């Protein structure tokens, strides 16, 4: 348990370090990272454990910054998808590279160990989501 808390604190400090390099608020950067593919706002809100209204406000801000666009969901024309623009994809890519580099260097993990950790973390997240969205 202590390792989980220590890792959380460490990641928060990494985000602070990234803050000084990127002029996009913390929560909006988190959304950019979560947008690995176009997603509905409601899905993204559930994944990030925030209210849909919070997600809508943040999406408006990201859209104003030119980092995302809203597109109709081809599977349900009533719904909208949030999708990264070219600038948004560039920002996401640079943040992922920066975070991977800092994690590997600081935690002394190999790329393979970090990939394994990422897969395990996603599994944990999915299982937590399953049990909290009833």
Automatic annotation (TrEMBL):
Alphabetical list of InterPro entries matching this protein: HTH_MarR-typ, MarR/SlyA-like, WH-like_DNA-bd_sf, WH_DNA-bd_sf
Limits of the HTH marR-type domain: 1-126
GO BP, sorted A to Z: response to stress
GO molecular function: DNA-binding transcription factor activity
Pfam families: MarR
Residues that span the membrane, as ranges: none
UniProt protein name: Transcriptional regulator, MarR family
Organism encoding this protein: Aliiroseovarius sediminilitoris
